[in-house]
Design brief:
Rossmann fold; 2 domains; seven-stranded mixed beta sheet; 12 helices; 11 strands; 23% strand
Length: 276
């Protein structure tokens, strides 16, 4: 295996110590924030050391190449973008604390997602639809490395899929802006320019995300091993389980325990650095 080390600041002493711990025989620079330790033979002690010094690590098959993948699927809120969009919409109605509390509990896996979304959306009733555009224009920011990651995937012909338990208002705009190939999310009901507090159709929750990923994977004729999925909350777990490589991005502990790799310090472009 290769041991990939990534971080905001990586000291030479840390690389030498990690090479010693893992039994790696060569240190290669990928870029200023990523290094490849070749032929790492031991895992014991690596996680503990990286946690102590604030680095992300991943043991990756030496033969794995990014071009061997065919699809990258990602969650939207707190993954592709830095906000929880429904929380920010709620802020414009003065109910952010109530909505954010439900959101946080949902991401920890304490509340069923469909029930949670129904509760949160109901609190938005009566808000003017212009609030959605205001959040998109003023508050929605991409997470670090998002554009670099997407550009690299596009260059290699790897398809991209945005799956959100949030609203199509945001996913549709991000899909067009970032040239994402596929997207799926929930539709917020709007009547006479006002949010009614209801969601149209079947809610895309944990199982819905997994179903969308499976459908697109099948449509593209890909194997599960050719799929990378990225998420941060409990409602992403089933989606992550459908991918050959799953990445917990600045995620809740329950997600980090289940994912193939965890990114706690670096940006989304860290995905590009994992593979040859």
């Amino acid at each position: 295996m290769n041991l990939i080390i990534q971080g905001i600041e990586i000291g030479n002493s840390d690389l030498r110590e990690l090479a010693k711990i893992s039994g790696a025989n060569q240190i290669e620079r990928i870029n200023g924030r990523a290094f490849r330790l070749r032929e790492a033979a031991r895992r014991e002690g690596v996680a503990e050391y990286c946690t102590e010094v604030g680095l992300d690590f991943a043991f990756v098959d030496q033969d794995a190449r990014l071009m061997d993948f065919g699809l990258v699927a990602m969650d939207m809120d707190s993954t592709l973008v830095s906000i929880e969009s429904i929380d920010e919409v709620a802020d414009l109605k003065g109910v952010k604390p109530q909505v954010a509390e439900i959101t946080a509990s949902t991401m920890r896996g304490e509340i069923d997602f469909a029930e949670s979304l129904t509760q949160r959306t109901a609190l938005l009733q009566g808000l003017d639809q212009s609030a959605l555009q205001q959040v998109y224009d003023e508050r929605l920011k991409l997470n670090p490395g998002a554009e670099r990651m997407l550009q690299r995937m596009k260059l290699l012909g790897i398809r991209t899929l945005l799956i959100s338990g949030g609203f199509t208002f945001f996913t549709d705009r991000l899909r067009e802006r970032l040239e994402i190939d596929y997207s799926a999310a929930n539709t917020l009901e709007i009547v006479d320019g006002k949010i009614t507090g209801k969601v149209l159709g079947e809610i895309i929750g944990a199982q819905g995300k997994a179903d969308v990923l499976t459908r697109v994977t099948d449509e593209l004729g890909l194997k599960r091993s050719q799929v990378i999925a990225i998420g941060d909350g409990a409602n992403d777990l089933k989606m992550l389980a459908e991918a050959g490589i799953s990445i917990a991005y600045h995620a809740k502990p329950i997600v980090q325990r289940e994912a193939t790799y965890s990114f706690n310090h670096i940006g989304l472009d860290g995905v590009v650095n994992l593979f040859g």
